[in-house]
Amino acid sequence: MGDGCQQGVTVLGATGSIGRSTLDVISRHPDKYRVVALTAHKQINLLAEQCGEFHPEFAVVTEADSAEKLSGLLSEISPETEVLSGIEGMERVASESSVDQVMAAIVGAAGLHPTMAAVRAGKRVLLANKESMVMTGHLFMDEVEACGAQLLPIDSEHNAIFQCLPQDAALGKFSHGVEKILLTGSGGPFRNRATDTLSTVTPEEAIAHPNWSMGKKISVDSATMMNKGLEFIEACWLFGATPDQIQVVIHPESIIHSMVQYSDGSVLAQMGNPDMRTPIAHALGWPQRVGSGVEHLDLFEVAELNFEKPDFGRYPCLRLSIDAMRRGGSATTVLNASNEIAVEAFLNGQIGYMEIADVIEETLSMVAVEEVTDLDLVLAKDSESRTVATAQIDKRRSLPGSRMQ
Ligand code: NAD
Ligand code: MG
Protein backbone atom coordinates (compact mmCIF):
# COMPACT_ATOMS: atom_id res chain seq x y z
CA MET A 1 0.00 0.00 0.00
CA GLY A 2 1.07 3.59 -0.54
CA ASP A 3 2.59 5.81 2.17
CA GLY A 4 0.20 7.05 4.84
CA CYS A 5 -3.23 7.76 3.48
CA GLN A 6 -1.95 8.61 0.00
CA GLN A 7 -2.81 6.14 -2.74
CA GLY A 8 -0.02 5.12 -5.11
CA VAL A 9 -1.09 5.38 -8.76
CA THR A 10 0.45 4.06 -11.98
CA VAL A 11 -0.75 5.69 -15.19
CA LEU A 12 -0.28 3.40 -18.20
CA GLY A 13 -0.49 5.58 -21.31
CA ALA A 14 0.20 8.80 -19.38
CA THR A 15 0.85 10.93 -22.47
CA GLY A 16 -2.49 10.13 -24.12
CA SER A 17 -5.78 11.91 -23.80
CA ILE A 18 -6.97 9.78 -20.83
CA GLY A 19 -3.50 9.80 -19.26
CA ARG A 20 -3.30 13.58 -19.34
CA SER A 21 -6.82 13.95 -17.93
CA THR A 22 -5.90 11.51 -15.14
CA LEU A 23 -2.86 13.57 -14.20
CA ASP A 24 -5.00 16.70 -14.24
CA VAL A 25 -7.36 15.14 -11.67
CA ILE A 26 -4.47 13.78 -9.57
CA SER A 27 -2.78 17.21 -9.53
CA ARG A 28 -5.89 18.57 -7.76
CA HIS A 29 -5.46 16.12 -4.86
CA PRO A 30 -1.78 15.88 -3.83
CA ASP A 31 -2.95 14.83 -0.35
CA LYS A 32 -4.78 11.77 -1.72
CA TYR A 33 -2.74 10.47 -4.66
CA ARG A 34 0.94 9.95 -5.36
CA VAL A 35 2.13 9.06 -8.87
CA VAL A 36 4.30 5.94 -8.69
CA ALA A 37 4.84 5.39 -12.41
CA LEU A 38 4.10 6.92 -15.80
CA THR A 39 4.37 5.08 -19.12
CA ALA A 40 4.37 6.18 -22.76
CA HIS A 41 5.09 4.86 -26.23
CA LYS A 42 7.06 7.55 -28.07
CA GLN A 43 6.19 10.97 -26.63
CA ILE A 44 9.41 11.30 -24.66
CA ASN A 45 9.33 15.09 -24.27
CA LEU A 46 5.83 15.14 -22.83
CA LEU A 47 6.64 12.20 -20.55
CA ALA A 48 9.74 14.03 -19.29
CA GLU A 49 7.63 17.12 -18.61
CA GLN A 50 5.12 15.01 -16.66
CA CYS A 51 7.96 13.44 -14.65
CA GLY A 52 9.26 16.93 -13.86
CA GLU A 53 5.85 17.75 -12.39
CA PHE A 54 4.95 14.49 -10.58
CA HIS A 55 8.39 12.98 -9.78
CA PRO A 56 7.32 9.33 -10.10
CA GLU A 57 9.48 6.44 -8.92
CA PHE A 58 9.41 5.01 -12.45
CA ALA A 59 8.97 6.15 -16.04
CA VAL A 60 8.59 3.51 -18.75
CA VAL A 61 8.80 3.75 -22.53
CA THR A 62 8.41 1.07 -25.20
CA GLU A 63 11.87 1.18 -26.81
CA ALA A 64 15.30 1.00 -25.17
CA ASP A 65 16.70 3.92 -27.20
CA SER A 66 13.79 6.15 -26.11
CA ALA A 67 14.59 5.13 -22.55
CA GLU A 68 18.14 6.35 -23.00
CA LYS A 69 16.91 9.70 -24.35
CA LEU A 70 14.41 9.98 -21.51
CA SER A 71 17.12 9.32 -18.88
CA GLY A 72 19.09 12.20 -20.37
CA LEU A 73 16.08 14.52 -20.15
CA LEU A 74 15.34 13.48 -16.55
CA SER A 75 18.87 13.80 -15.19
CA GLU A 76 18.15 17.37 -14.07
CA ILE A 77 14.39 17.66 -13.73
CA SER A 78 13.62 14.36 -11.97
CA PRO A 79 16.85 12.44 -11.16
CA GLU A 80 14.98 10.25 -8.66
CA THR A 81 12.89 8.67 -11.45
CA GLU A 82 14.12 5.25 -12.58
CA VAL A 83 13.68 4.73 -16.33
CA LEU A 84 12.56 1.32 -17.61
CA SER A 85 11.57 0.06 -21.05
CA GLY A 86 9.53 -2.57 -22.86
CA ILE A 87 6.54 -4.67 -21.89
CA GLU A 88 8.47 -6.03 -18.88
CA GLY A 89 8.91 -2.49 -17.57
CA MET A 90 5.22 -1.73 -18.05
CA GLU A 91 4.20 -5.00 -16.39
CA ARG A 92 6.49 -4.26 -13.48
CA VAL A 93 5.06 -0.81 -12.76
CA ALA A 94 1.52 -2.17 -13.11
CA SER A 95 2.21 -4.68 -10.33
CA GLU A 96 4.70 -2.89 -7.99
CA SER A 97 3.88 -3.23 -4.31
CA SER A 98 3.78 0.57 -3.81
CA VAL A 99 0.92 0.82 -6.33
CA ASP A 100 -2.72 0.79 -5.20
CA GLN A 101 -4.48 1.92 -8.38
CA VAL A 102 -3.56 1.41 -12.03
CA MET A 103 -5.06 3.58 -14.75
CA ALA A 104 -5.07 1.31 -17.83
CA ALA A 105 -5.06 3.91 -20.63
CA ILE A 106 -2.82 2.48 -23.33
CA VAL A 107 -4.66 2.38 -26.65
CA GLY A 108 -5.37 -0.91 -28.42
CA ALA A 109 -4.18 -4.47 -27.93
CA ALA A 110 -0.79 -3.09 -26.81
CA GLY A 111 -2.48 -2.45 -23.45
CA LEU A 112 -3.31 -6.10 -22.82
CA HIS A 113 -0.18 -7.33 -21.04
CA PRO A 114 0.34 -4.37 -18.68
CA THR A 115 -3.39 -4.27 -17.88
CA MET A 116 -3.41 -8.02 -17.19
CA ALA A 117 -0.33 -7.61 -14.99
CA ALA A 118 -2.26 -5.11 -12.86
CA VAL A 119 -5.22 -7.49 -12.67
CA ARG A 120 -2.99 -10.43 -11.69
CA ALA A 121 -1.34 -8.36 -8.97
CA GLY A 122 -4.83 -7.80 -7.53
CA LYS A 123 -4.72 -4.03 -8.00
CA ARG A 124 -7.60 -1.64 -8.29
CA VAL A 125 -7.73 -1.32 -12.09
CA LEU A 126 -9.29 1.74 -13.71
CA LEU A 127 -10.11 0.35 -17.13
CA ALA A 128 -10.04 2.75 -20.09
CA ASN A 129 -8.32 0.27 -22.44
CA LYS A 130 -11.52 -1.38 -23.71
CA GLU A 131 -9.62 -3.30 -26.42
CA SER A 132 -7.98 -5.60 -23.84
CA MET A 133 -11.42 -6.57 -22.54
CA VAL A 134 -12.92 -7.00 -26.03
CA MET A 135 -10.10 -9.23 -27.24
CA THR A 136 -10.04 -11.52 -24.20
CA GLY A 137 -13.71 -11.57 -23.14
CA HIS A 138 -14.47 -13.88 -20.25
CA LEU A 139 -10.75 -14.58 -19.63
CA PHE A 140 -10.34 -11.01 -18.42
CA MET A 141 -13.29 -11.23 -16.01
CA ASP A 142 -12.18 -14.68 -14.79
CA GLU A 143 -8.75 -13.29 -14.01
CA VAL A 144 -10.24 -10.30 -12.15
CA GLU A 145 -12.22 -12.67 -9.97
CA ALA A 146 -9.42 -15.17 -9.44
CA CYS A 147 -6.88 -12.50 -8.47
CA GLY A 148 -9.18 -10.39 -6.31
CA ALA A 149 -8.59 -7.31 -8.44
CA GLN A 150 -11.09 -4.48 -8.33
CA LEU A 151 -12.28 -3.25 -11.71
CA LEU A 152 -13.68 0.25 -12.13
CA PRO A 153 -14.84 1.35 -15.58
CA ILE A 154 -13.44 4.58 -17.03
CA ASP A 155 -15.22 4.53 -20.36
CA SER A 156 -17.82 7.24 -19.71
CA GLU A 157 -20.73 4.95 -20.66
CA HIS A 158 -19.63 2.07 -18.45
CA ASN A 159 -18.81 4.41 -15.64
CA ALA A 160 -22.33 5.86 -16.00
CA ILE A 161 -23.88 2.37 -16.00
CA PHE A 162 -21.82 1.46 -12.94
CA GLN A 163 -23.15 4.58 -11.20
CA CYS A 164 -26.76 3.73 -12.17
CA LEU A 165 -26.63 0.07 -11.11
CA PRO A 166 -27.72 -0.90 -7.59
CA GLN A 167 -24.86 -0.22 -5.18
CA ASP A 168 -24.74 -3.81 -3.97
CA ALA A 169 -24.68 -5.30 -7.49
CA ALA A 170 -21.27 -6.76 -8.23
CA LEU A 171 -19.66 -6.16 -11.61
CA GLY A 172 -20.39 -9.09 -13.88
CA LYS A 173 -23.76 -9.86 -12.23
CA PHE A 174 -26.81 -8.64 -14.13
CA SER A 175 -29.60 -8.87 -11.53
CA HIS A 176 -31.40 -6.84 -8.84
CA GLY A 177 -34.36 -5.96 -11.08
CA VAL A 178 -32.10 -4.55 -13.78
CA GLU A 179 -33.76 -5.14 -17.15
CA LYS A 180 -31.78 -3.29 -19.73
CA ILE A 181 -28.74 -1.16 -20.30
CA LEU A 182 -29.29 1.82 -22.58
CA LEU A 183 -25.85 2.49 -24.06
CA THR A 184 -25.70 6.02 -25.45
CA GLY A 185 -23.41 7.35 -28.17
CA SER A 186 -23.23 10.66 -29.98
CA GLY A 187 -23.29 9.16 -33.49
CA GLY A 188 -19.99 10.92 -34.26
CA PRO A 189 -19.26 13.64 -36.80
CA PHE A 190 -21.09 11.98 -39.75
CA ARG A 191 -24.50 11.37 -38.18
CA ASN A 192 -26.18 13.66 -40.69
CA ARG A 193 -23.78 13.41 -43.61
CA ALA A 194 -25.32 12.05 -46.84
CA THR A 195 -24.45 8.31 -46.85
CA ASP A 196 -23.36 8.40 -50.50
CA THR A 197 -20.57 10.84 -49.56
CA LEU A 198 -19.21 8.76 -46.65
CA SER A 199 -16.67 7.02 -48.89
CA THR A 200 -14.87 10.36 -49.36
CA VAL A 201 -14.42 11.07 -45.63
CA THR A 202 -10.82 12.09 -44.87
CA PRO A 203 -8.81 11.19 -41.72
CA GLU A 204 -8.86 14.88 -40.69
CA GLU A 205 -12.67 14.93 -40.83
CA ALA A 206 -12.94 11.61 -38.99
CA ILE A 207 -10.78 12.62 -36.04
CA ALA A 208 -12.67 15.88 -35.42
CA HIS A 209 -15.26 14.66 -32.89
CA PRO A 210 -18.09 17.11 -32.13
CA ASN A 211 -18.21 16.56 -28.34
CA TRP A 212 -15.14 14.74 -27.04
CA SER A 213 -11.41 15.37 -27.41
CA MET A 214 -9.69 11.97 -27.75
CA GLY A 215 -6.80 10.04 -29.30
CA LYS A 216 -6.88 9.40 -33.08
CA LYS A 217 -7.82 5.73 -32.99
CA ILE A 218 -10.83 6.13 -30.70
CA SER A 219 -11.88 9.22 -32.67
CA VAL A 220 -12.09 7.18 -35.90
CA ASP A 221 -13.83 4.41 -33.93
CA SER A 222 -16.36 6.99 -32.74
CA ALA A 223 -17.05 8.15 -36.29
CA THR A 224 -17.68 4.58 -37.52
CA MET A 225 -19.42 3.71 -34.23
CA MET A 226 -17.00 0.81 -33.87
CA ASN A 227 -16.32 2.49 -30.55
CA LYS A 228 -19.93 1.86 -29.54
CA GLY A 229 -19.58 -1.69 -30.85
CA LEU A 230 -16.50 -2.28 -28.69
CA GLU A 231 -18.37 -0.70 -25.78
CA PHE A 232 -21.34 -2.99 -26.40
CA ILE A 233 -19.01 -5.99 -26.03
CA GLU A 234 -17.25 -4.40 -23.04
CA ALA A 235 -20.62 -3.84 -21.34
CA CYS A 236 -21.69 -7.47 -21.87
CA TRP A 237 -18.57 -8.71 -20.08
CA LEU A 238 -18.36 -6.05 -17.38
CA PHE A 239 -21.98 -6.26 -16.30
CA GLY A 240 -22.77 -9.88 -17.18
CA ALA A 241 -25.42 -8.80 -19.71
CA THR A 242 -26.58 -10.67 -22.80
CA PRO A 243 -26.62 -8.84 -26.16
CA ASP A 244 -30.44 -8.66 -25.89
CA GLN A 245 -30.15 -6.73 -22.63
CA ILE A 246 -28.23 -3.85 -24.21
CA GLN A 247 -29.74 -1.26 -26.49
CA VAL A 248 -27.66 1.33 -28.33
CA VAL A 249 -29.25 4.79 -28.32
CA ILE A 250 -27.89 7.71 -30.32
CA HIS A 251 -27.87 10.83 -28.18
CA PRO A 252 -26.07 13.59 -30.09
CA GLU A 253 -25.55 15.99 -27.15
CA SER A 254 -23.43 13.51 -25.05
CA ILE A 255 -24.95 14.80 -21.81
CA ILE A 256 -26.48 11.50 -20.68
CA HIS A 257 -23.58 9.03 -20.59
CA SER A 258 -25.79 5.91 -20.42
CA MET A 259 -28.82 4.58 -18.53
CA VAL A 260 -30.11 1.55 -16.67
CA GLN A 261 -33.73 0.46 -16.98
CA TYR A 262 -35.36 -1.43 -14.07
CA SER A 263 -38.28 -3.86 -13.91
CA ASP A 264 -40.50 -1.28 -12.17
CA GLY A 265 -40.24 1.11 -15.13
CA SER A 266 -37.54 3.35 -13.61
CA VAL A 267 -34.74 4.49 -15.88
CA LEU A 268 -31.68 5.92 -14.13
CA ALA A 269 -29.34 8.15 -16.14
CA GLN A 270 -25.96 9.63 -15.29
CA MET A 271 -25.44 13.09 -16.75
CA GLY A 272 -22.66 15.62 -16.97
CA ASN A 273 -20.62 17.68 -19.38
CA PRO A 274 -18.66 15.48 -21.80
CA ASP A 275 -15.29 15.54 -20.06
CA MET A 276 -13.44 12.34 -19.15
CA ARG A 277 -12.21 13.86 -15.90
CA THR A 278 -15.63 13.05 -14.39
CA PRO A 279 -15.45 9.24 -14.80
CA ILE A 280 -11.72 9.37 -13.96
CA ALA A 281 -12.35 11.26 -10.70
CA HIS A 282 -15.29 8.97 -9.93
CA ALA A 283 -13.14 5.87 -10.23
CA LEU A 284 -10.09 7.32 -8.45
CA GLY A 285 -12.18 8.45 -5.50
CA TRP A 286 -14.75 5.62 -5.37
CA PRO A 287 -16.63 5.04 -3.09
CA GLN A 288 -15.98 8.67 -2.15
CA ARG A 289 -16.36 11.62 -4.53
CA VAL A 290 -13.44 13.89 -5.37
CA GLY A 291 -13.32 17.11 -7.39
CA SER A 292 -12.52 16.74 -11.10
CA GLY A 293 -12.24 20.30 -12.36
CA VAL A 294 -15.14 19.67 -14.76
CA GLU A 295 -17.49 22.57 -15.30
CA HIS A 296 -20.91 21.90 -13.77
CA LEU A 297 -23.75 21.02 -16.07
CA ASP A 298 -26.01 23.92 -17.00
CA LEU A 299 -29.31 22.35 -18.11
CA PHE A 300 -30.64 25.68 -19.37
CA GLU A 301 -27.68 25.94 -21.67
CA VAL A 302 -28.15 22.32 -22.83
CA ALA A 303 -31.90 22.97 -23.27
CA GLU A 304 -32.57 19.90 -25.42
CA LEU A 305 -31.75 16.20 -25.27
CA ASN A 306 -32.38 14.09 -28.38
CA PHE A 307 -32.48 10.35 -28.99
CA GLU A 308 -32.37 8.31 -32.20
CA LYS A 309 -32.15 4.72 -33.30
CA PRO A 310 -28.81 3.80 -34.92
CA ASP A 311 -28.88 3.16 -38.66
CA PHE A 312 -26.75 0.09 -39.41
CA GLY A 313 -26.38 1.17 -43.07
CA ARG A 314 -24.55 4.27 -41.92
CA TYR A 315 -22.69 2.41 -39.17
CA PRO A 316 -21.84 -1.10 -40.46
CA CYS A 317 -19.09 -1.47 -37.81
CA LEU A 318 -21.75 -1.33 -35.09
CA ARG A 319 -23.66 -4.20 -36.70
CA LEU A 320 -20.44 -6.21 -37.14
CA SER A 321 -19.63 -5.77 -33.43
CA ILE A 322 -23.04 -6.83 -32.16
CA ASP A 323 -22.98 -9.83 -34.53
CA ALA A 324 -19.49 -10.78 -33.32
CA MET A 325 -20.66 -10.68 -29.69
CA ARG A 326 -23.65 -12.86 -30.54
CA ARG A 327 -21.39 -15.26 -32.38
CA GLY A 328 -19.15 -15.48 -29.31
CA GLY A 329 -15.78 -17.22 -28.92
CA SER A 330 -12.87 -15.55 -30.65
CA ALA A 331 -15.06 -13.49 -33.03
CA THR A 332 -14.58 -10.35 -30.92
CA THR A 333 -10.79 -10.90 -30.90
CA VAL A 334 -10.86 -10.96 -34.72
CA LEU A 335 -13.12 -7.90 -34.81
CA ASN A 336 -10.82 -5.88 -32.57
CA ALA A 337 -7.57 -6.83 -34.33
CA SER A 338 -8.90 -6.25 -37.86
CA ASN A 339 -10.35 -2.91 -36.77
CA GLU A 340 -6.98 -1.77 -35.41
CA ILE A 341 -5.29 -2.65 -38.70
CA ALA A 342 -8.05 -1.08 -40.82
CA VAL A 343 -8.12 2.16 -38.81
CA GLU A 344 -4.36 2.52 -39.09
CA ALA A 345 -4.56 1.93 -42.86
CA PHE A 346 -7.32 4.54 -43.11
CA LEU A 347 -5.29 7.06 -41.10
CA ASN A 348 -2.31 6.39 -43.39
CA GLY A 349 -4.41 7.02 -46.48
CA GLN A 350 -4.25 3.38 -47.65
CA ILE A 351 -7.98 2.64 -47.64
CA GLY A 352 -11.14 4.70 -47.75
CA TYR A 353 -13.40 5.34 -44.76
CA MET A 354 -16.14 2.87 -45.72
CA GLU A 355 -13.50 0.22 -46.46
CA ILE A 356 -12.76 -0.03 -42.72
CA ALA A 357 -15.96 -2.07 -42.27
CA ASP A 358 -15.27 -4.07 -45.45
CA VAL A 359 -11.84 -5.16 -44.21
CA ILE A 360 -13.28 -6.16 -40.82
CA GLU A 361 -16.14 -8.10 -42.43
CA GLU A 362 -13.76 -9.91 -44.79
CA THR A 363 -11.40 -10.80 -41.94
CA LEU A 364 -14.30 -12.07 -39.82
CA SER A 365 -15.36 -14.33 -42.68
CA MET A 366 -11.83 -15.70 -43.19
CA VAL A 367 -10.56 -16.37 -39.66
CA ALA A 368 -12.14 -19.40 -37.98
CA VAL A 369 -13.99 -18.67 -34.74
CA GLU A 370 -12.95 -20.83 -31.80
CA GLU A 371 -13.78 -21.07 -28.15
CA VAL A 372 -11.59 -18.76 -26.05
CA THR A 373 -9.84 -21.16 -23.70
CA ASP A 374 -6.63 -19.32 -22.86
CA LEU A 375 -4.58 -16.22 -23.55
CA ASP A 376 -2.28 -17.97 -26.05
CA LEU A 377 -5.25 -18.72 -28.27
CA VAL A 378 -6.35 -15.07 -28.05
CA LEU A 379 -2.89 -13.85 -29.01
CA ALA A 380 -2.71 -16.32 -31.92
CA LYS A 381 -6.14 -15.19 -33.20
CA ASP A 382 -5.15 -11.57 -32.80
CA SER A 383 -2.00 -12.09 -34.84
CA GLU A 384 -3.72 -14.21 -37.53
CA SER A 385 -6.43 -11.55 -37.91
CA ARG A 386 -3.82 -8.81 -38.32
CA THR A 387 -2.13 -10.80 -41.09
CA VAL A 388 -5.42 -11.49 -42.87
CA ALA A 389 -6.60 -7.88 -42.55
CA THR A 390 -3.27 -6.57 -43.87
CA ALA A 391 -3.49 -8.93 -46.85
CA GLN A 392 -7.04 -7.75 -47.58
CA ILE A 393 -5.86 -4.14 -47.50
CA ASP A 394 -2.98 -4.92 -49.88
CA LYS A 395 -5.41 -6.68 -52.20
CA ARG A 396 -7.73 -3.67 -52.23
CA ARG A 397 -4.82 -1.30 -52.93
CA SER A 398 -3.69 -3.35 -55.91
CA LEU A 399 -7.16 -3.39 -57.50
CA PRO A 400 -7.29 -1.47 -60.77
CA GLY A 401 -9.07 1.83 -60.16
CA SER A 402 -8.33 1.86 -56.42
CA ARG A 403 -8.44 5.51 -55.31
CA MET A 404 -5.91 4.82 -52.59
CA GLN A 405 -2.82 3.58 -54.36
P1 NAD B 1 -4.21 8.23 -27.02
O1 NAD B 1 -3.83 7.80 -28.37
O2 NAD B 1 -4.43 9.67 -26.76
O3 NAD B 1 -3.12 7.72 -25.95
C1 NAD B 1 -2.64 6.42 -25.97
C2 NAD B 1 -1.55 6.21 -24.92
O4 NAD B 1 -1.04 4.87 -25.11
C3 NAD B 1 -0.35 7.15 -25.08
O5 NAD B 1 0.18 7.44 -23.83
C4 NAD B 1 0.65 6.32 -25.87
O6 NAD B 1 1.98 6.70 -25.62
C5 NAD B 1 0.37 4.92 -25.37
N1 NAD B 1 0.68 3.89 -26.35
C6 NAD B 1 0.32 3.87 -27.67
N2 NAD B 1 0.79 2.76 -28.27
C7 NAD B 1 1.48 2.08 -27.33
C8 NAD B 1 2.23 0.86 -27.36
N3 NAD B 1 2.37 0.13 -28.47
N4 NAD B 1 2.80 0.44 -26.21
C9 NAD B 1 2.67 1.17 -25.07
N5 NAD B 1 1.98 2.33 -24.99
C10 NAD B 1 1.40 2.77 -26.11
O7 NAD B 1 -5.51 7.39 -26.62
P2 NAD B 1 -6.69 7.78 -25.59
O8 NAD B 1 -7.73 8.55 -26.31
O9 NAD B 1 -6.12 8.34 -24.33
O10 NAD B 1 -7.31 6.34 -25.30
C11 NAD B 1 -6.67 5.41 -24.46
C12 NAD B 1 -7.61 4.25 -24.19
O11 NAD B 1 -8.73 4.74 -23.47
C13 NAD B 1 -8.16 3.59 -25.46
O12 NAD B 1 -8.29 2.23 -25.23
C14 NAD B 1 -9.52 4.23 -25.63
O13 NAD B 1 -10.44 3.39 -26.28
C15 NAD B 1 -9.92 4.43 -24.17
N6 NAD B 1 -10.88 5.52 -23.96
C16 NAD B 1 -10.53 6.79 -24.32
C17 NAD B 1 -11.45 7.83 -24.14
C18 NAD B 1 -11.09 9.26 -24.49
O14 NAD B 1 -11.92 10.14 -24.27
N7 NAD B 1 -9.92 9.55 -24.99
C19 NAD B 1 -12.72 7.53 -23.62
C20 NAD B 1 -13.02 6.23 -23.28
C21 NAD B 1 -12.09 5.22 -23.45
MG1 MG C 1 -16.95 5.68 -24.29
UniProtKB/TrEMBL annotation:
Its cofactor is Mg(2+); Mn(2+). It comes from the Bacteria. Residues 271-387 form the DXP reductoisomerase C-terminal domain. NADPH binds at residues 15-18, 42, 129, 131, 215. Residues 151-239 form the 1-deoxy-D-xylulose 5-phosphate reductoisomerase C-terminal domain. Mn(2+) binds at residues 155, 157, 231. It catalyses: 2-C-methyl-D-erythritol 4-phosphate + NADP(+) = 1-deoxy-D-xylulose 5-phosphate + NADPH + H(+). InterPro entries: DXP_reductoisomerase (IPR003821), DXP_reductoisomerase_C (IPR013644), DXP_reductoisomerase_N (IPR013512), DXPR_C (IPR026877), DXPR_C_sf (IPR036169), NAD(P)-bd_dom_sf (IPR036291). One of its GO terms (molecular function) is NADPH binding. Its EC number is 1.1.1.267. Keywords: Isoprene biosynthesis, Magnesium, Manganese, Metal-binding, NADP, Oxidoreductase. GO terms for biological process: isopentenyl diphosphate biosynthetic process, methylerythritol 4-phosphate pathway involved in terpenoid biosynthetic process. The keyword Oxidoreductase applies. Pathway: Isoprenoid biosynthesis; isopentenyl diphosphate biosynthesis via DXP pathway; isopentenyl diphosphate from 1-deoxy-D-xylulose 5-phosphate: step 1/6. It is an enzyme of class 1 (oxidoreductase). Residues 9-137 form the 1-deoxy-D-xylulose 5-phosphate reductoisomerase N-terminal domain. 1-deoxy-D-xylulose 5-phosphate binds at residues 130, 156-157, 186, 209, 222, 227-228, 231. Belongs to the DXR family. Catalyzes the NADPH-dependent rearrangement and reduction of 1-deoxy-D-xylulose-5-phosphate (DXP) to 2-C-methyl-D-erythritol 4-phosphate (MEP). This is 1-deoxy-D-xylulose 5-phosphate reductoisomerase.
